[in-house]
Amino acid sequence: MRVNRSERYRKKDGRPPLPEVTEGTSATIEDALVAREAGSMAQARAILAAIDKGQGLRTVLRAAAALEAGDEEELLELIPAVQKEEPVWQLRLQVAAVLERGAERDGLVRDATKLGAPAWSLAWVRALSSDDAERRQGLVDLLFEDAALSRTVAARDLAVPHVQADNGAIRRYAAFAHGRDVIRRFGARQVARLLERAGGRSS
Question: Is the same domain home to 108 and 180?
């Protein structure tokens, strides 16, 4: 991917602009994550800006990256879109599913519950807990709430021997798990900070 790194024009605060992703490139979230993992934060932000369509996970990651970089101007432009993400509970649980059990994770789960998160989604997060007792209870709850999804989670997330993913639950699993896995690679704590800044996380 070619990137124009010209610093001919500077931002109002005197900082150089982000690298400009060349028109016509087919950049993806994966490209942005790879750039971050290589330590190229500015390039990752440029890619996210180029692929952002004003809503969804790309916008969330772009806002989180702006917060990380201290770019208040861009962050303030993006926060309204983050606040309108639907379903409102999903992003909170996707972040919670990555974090270790503690006050930050518990606050996200409480907020998601208040925002109407369905029982199966809450049970799923508990099933991924680092706490053995909570994980077992989450699996039991998920089994009662959605047996097909519980088999899929057991097979794909927990690698339980001899359990097969349920084809009927794959679509719902993929919709939630994709965002969770992307957030894990990007940095769940950074997205949690964004939610707090956007007014969407309990202290």
Answer: yes
